[in-house]
Amino acid sequence: MIKNNLYHKIALLWLLIVSILLIHSGYLLLNKHISFSTDILALLPAEQRDPVVQKATDHMFNTVQQQVAVLVGANTWQEAVRAADAYTTVIHTRPDLFQSSHMISETTPNNYLDIFLKSRLGLLTLRQQSELKTQSSQYWVNIALSILYSPFSGPKFGTWQDDPFGLFSGWIQERVQETPVRPRDGKLFIADKNHAYVVILLHLVKPAFSMSNQKAVMPVLEAAKKAAQRAVLHTDIISTGVVLHAAFGSQEASHEMSTIAIGSLLGIIILMSIIFKSFKPILLIGLSIGIGCLGALSLCWILLSKIHLLTLVFGASLIGVAQDYSIYFLCSRLGTDVSVSSRELLNHLWPGLILTLTAAIVGYMGLALTPFPGLQQMALFSGLGLVFAWLTVVCWFPIFIKPQTLKSTYLAKFFDISLNYWPVFKLNKSTTLISLLFCVFVIIGFSKLTVSDDIRSLQNPPKALINDQIKFSKLLDAPTLVQFYLVRGTTEQIVLQREEALKLELQDLINKNIITGYQAISNWVPSERLQTTHQNLVKQKLLFNISDVNKSPLEYLADKIGENSVWVEHIRNHLLSNSVILTPKIFLNLPISEPWRFLWMGKVGESGEKYASIVTIKGLKNYADLNQLKKIAPKIPGVKWVDKINEISSILGHYREYMGWVVLGAYIAIYLLLYIRYRNATWRVMLPPAIASISTIAILGIFGIPLQLFHILALMLILGLGVDYGIFLQEKSKYAWLTVGLSAISALLSFGLLGLSTTPPLHAFGLTMLIGMAIVWLILPCFRNFEERK
Question: Do the beta carbons of residue 382 and residue 289 sit within 8 Å?
């Protein structure tokens, strides 16, 4: 027992600690030093098995994270240009937020072609390689004459003598076909059947997942959109970018956080005012909860330096748990004789208070054991909040709540008396029948239960964003960035050679119309071995008469146009001088390489497979064909198929099973903890949350709701809260049933609101809590001792 003087010193010490934490929290909030992350992937574990795969995934994501692509379309090109100019005028007013790169010079190709011209003898398409091996000399002479005399023979790069057989022109045109975007009137142009579009590429100056940046960026983008629509009626604006999805998630999470907090607080105020008919208990409960939340915020920031927004949303549900300690003390004070001081009452309540806190912490430890950074934050935030709220109750409530402060109300007495009319299970025919029906219900529910670990189920973007993304991908034939091939090798050249082997396999899928194409650095920079092979092929088939029987196509061509051997030698030497080997370093330094730079990872280690690149897939027709793409990788050394969606979904499934065992372990740990005090009556505390958890899973199965990781995580909290309520009843204090009722109703309000969330993880968590806690509350009295009822 703590003496009065020591107790007051502890209360003052707690006041000092709380003051420091509150000042720190206020400083962080008022000076906007807190940065809340909104990246949903931050909730997920990092790839542990292959660091290069994780690096490749991060590399792919970072290439698009800061980009916003906007298509401004109209019925005619002139109208699209006018609308785009109005759009960019608004964007240019905020150079602190955006860097625009929508302008392009139509003479730009001439600036980089010199580099390719020096290497053109080694640059051939697959079709050109095949034709060189199979077509006759006359075929190539006809092509050269067609290019020379026909005004519609296609674009020419340099003079006719630079590329008489059109090999380099054909290679360049194939490269151009990798994107449908074209330069036009100093802008980027693309069109469909109905609209001509100006492509505007924006680069965010600040991080896309910064909430403050999102709040600044979104109004500017909206203002630019309205300006374009004012300039040209019926302008079609298609926008895509990570920041758009992040901003939507932030807005929804902020709205839900305020809704949950305000809804829970109102529920508590109404309940407490009806039961206690005094605002003092309400203020004290609010004080304990406020200290819990702000103290947790302060310490989490000190320990982590970055907090996910969903951590705060989840922390808002802390109200449903932290208030249990306050309600337990207040209801016990209500049912205790005025001759007993509040400090003496606290000594009576110590076992129950300690056990309830310990059980709750064990529940949150289940979250902390996961490798999910976001869930670890939630566990830390909630655990610290509970400890702060608990300490506030034990340190201050006995001082502020005097024996005469609270007076029993009719409703409080009626609620407590109602426990006497609650049925109690005992060994008889009725209980046996109920048990059999329950088993049938569980068997039916579990037989219909399915599971879903798809990462895409964790996000619920608005339909408008999804539609824009689909339109954008179709118009630009954009590759997927979450499914790709990772190509590794000991040298850069080996990486390029393995890319080329991979592309030969992919060509078969293109022929089968499974994909439309691929993107790879080797499209622009063939391996040194392949460039040398190309050069030798051109020399043998076009420039020299290797067999000494017939003339070479170049010599036949000279005869056709009336040139002699001097001209042949001059052209031959001119073409042979363009045999410089093109390397990734040379290409990546060119401005034209910018759209493809993300494909080249370069050096990724110091030993083994030191270099890596990425090959992306375009136009996958059916996701069921992903398995065919996966089967190609093992055929080629150093190639790995990366499907981040499937990979993360597998991780979610693994940890769903893992957390199931953690929940089971928590039941065993808490049972052993409670057995020390309750002995053979421990099952009466543990069985209600166990039945509620099993029933909740069965209900999910019956209603066709797939089981997810976040359902399992909610079962952990059902255990913690259910044990709290069982402890309250086992401690046999007056108004214990009132304590359980008030706590359960408040928890149902908090977690019920989570169940209304549009954020799928929170919705799954809240729905499970809503069902589970309602069942715990309803069946808990049925497991109390029958003799106690009498």
Answer: no
